[in-house]
């Protein structure tokens, strides 16, 4: 796919055509080349491919203001099962709906997307404030206040919670909680909002940094050592480890005793583990569940990603770590969404079920289809029946044509 990776940014109408083989980082780089006041609300990892990222949703730091990456798709080019190249007009609104969050590979071969770029101010503000559990006895109060307000704040403000558990050089287990934020505005206004809405954070002016949008992209991508902008063009991840990830959504707040139980459970692991919690709300609440296949809108408060990581090549620990994260996922059951327990398509999780030969029925595939798409899974299967009734485009968790057996 890397051979179809051109990007054409148009600052006259604030759009871009981006081919499916391009990466998120390449898209950001080419937008920044053309404009200092345009951006795009996609994800944080620059080496992720655009075709899959956009077709599966695209959570990012500006989603509370501008929605998901997939909410900002305005046209597409796709090769259908007959080998024809279709744009939005030719494919029809049903198929166009499906490939904006329903996983494009179930319906054809995505060649390119046309996206709507968004306005960003010349100065944005970031902060990152960390706490070690052993050093702050009131941490549960800070986390509870964050949880109470983060999804209800000004739509320009994104504050995520990043939990990391690892061992120090003496073998002691350390749990660190970091609050990372992007604000589409200057630091004085950010401080005013935090002081009013999240005072327990005790944010200080010297902890805030103003920078351009593309500099915030580099920051969240982990490029904090003065790397050139061209680092966003790298296709190989700078992180040399393997991992297993799972996901959840919160539809109600976790009580304080719940956070304490979670931290204790995390500390008892023997691996490097992460728990990343992104606030939704804002303009995400203004988009209906059926507007696109991604259904987690009003009523969904936070998205959670769990990861366990190990050094590449260390096969001796893989099964132990996989067992741990699957056990932790079960442990989280009382705190997360139910009926169905939700999952995010772009954090693809084959533990939820698979159809390796494409031979399971629609009803059997609802085991994972409903978790990713809720009631939109049925509509996706109807689109599939119309455009690919023989299920030519299939994978372990692809959308099947709706059938009655």
Question: What's the short story on this structure?
Answer:
The chain has 405 residues and is α+β, with helices and mostly antiparallel strands.
Protein model, in words:
The protein is α+β, with helices and mostly antiparallel strands. It has two domains: 7-119, 2-Layer Sandwich (Uridine Diphospho-n-acetylenolpyruvylglucosamine Reductase, domain 3), CATH 3.30.465; 124-211 and 239-345, Vanillyl-alcohol Oxidase, Chain A, domain 3. The chain contains eleven helices and 14 strands. It has helices at residues 24-34, 50-56, 63-66, 88-98, 139-149, 187-197, 213-220, 256-267, 318-331, 362-373, 376-387, and strands at 7-10, 15-19, 38-39, 73-79, 85-86, 109-116, 118-119, 124-132, 157-167, 173-183, 208-211, 241-250, 272-279, 302-311. Strands 11-8-10-9-13-14-12 form a seven-stranded antiparallel beta sheet. The chain has a five-stranded antiparallel beta sheet with strand order 1-2-6-4-5. Strand 1 (7-10) and strand 2 (15-19) form a beta hairpin. It is globular, with a radius of gyration of 21 Å. It starts with 6 loop residues before the first strand and ends in an 18-residue tail after the last helix. The mean pLDDT is 95. Belongs to the oxygen-dependent FAD-linked oxidoreductase family.
């Amino acid at each position: 796919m890397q051979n179809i990776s051109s990007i054409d940014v148009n600052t006259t109408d604030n759009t871009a055509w981006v081919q499916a083989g391009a990466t998120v980082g390449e898209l950001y780089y080419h937008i920044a080349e053309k404009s200092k006041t345009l951006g795009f609300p996609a994800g944080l990892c620059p080496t992720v491919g655009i075709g899959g990222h956009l077709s599966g949703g695209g959570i990012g730091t500006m989603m509370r203001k501008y929605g998901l990456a997939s909410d900002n798709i305005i046209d597409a080019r796709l090769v259908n099962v007959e080998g024809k190249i279709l744009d939005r007009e030719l494919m029809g609104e049903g198929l166009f709906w499906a490939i904006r969050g329903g996983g494009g590979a179930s319906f054809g071969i995505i060649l390119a997307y046309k996206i709507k770029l968004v306005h960003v101010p010349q100065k944005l503000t970031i902060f990152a404030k960390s706490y070690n559990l052993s050093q702050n006895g009131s941490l549960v109060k800070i986390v509870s206040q964050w949880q109470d307000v983060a999804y209800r704040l000004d739509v320009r403000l994104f504050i995520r919670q990043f939990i990391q558990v690892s061992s120090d050089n003496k073998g002691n287990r350390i749990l660190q909680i970091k609050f990372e934020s992007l604000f589409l505005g200057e630091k004085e206004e950010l401080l005013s909002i935090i002081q009013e809405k999240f005072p327990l954070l005790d944010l200080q002016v010297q902890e805030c940094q103003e920078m351009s949008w593309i500099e915030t992209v580099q920051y969240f991508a982990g490029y904090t050592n003065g790397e050139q902008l061209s680092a966003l063009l790298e296709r190989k991840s700078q992180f040399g480890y393997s991992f297993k990830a799972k996901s959840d959504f919160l539809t109600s707040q976790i009580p304080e005793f719940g956070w304490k139980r979670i931290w204790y459970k995390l500390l008892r692991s023997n691996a490097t583990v992460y728990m990343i919690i992104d606030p939704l709300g804002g303009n995400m609440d203004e988009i209906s569940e059926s507007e696109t296949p991604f259904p987690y809108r009003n009523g969904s408060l936070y998205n959670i990603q769990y990861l366990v990581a190990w050094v590449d090549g260390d096969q001796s620990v893989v099964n132990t770590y996989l067992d741990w994260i699957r056990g932790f996922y079960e442990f989280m059951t009382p705190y997360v969404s139910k009926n169905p327990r939700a999952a995010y398509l772009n954090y693809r999780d084959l533990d939820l079920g698979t159809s390796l030969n494409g031979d399971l029925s629609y009803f059997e595939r609802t085991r994972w289809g409903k978790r990713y798409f809720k009631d939109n899974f049925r509509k996706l299967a109807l689109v599939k029946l119309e455009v690919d009734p023989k299920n030519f485009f299939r994978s372990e968790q692809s959308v099947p044509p709706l059938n009655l057996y």
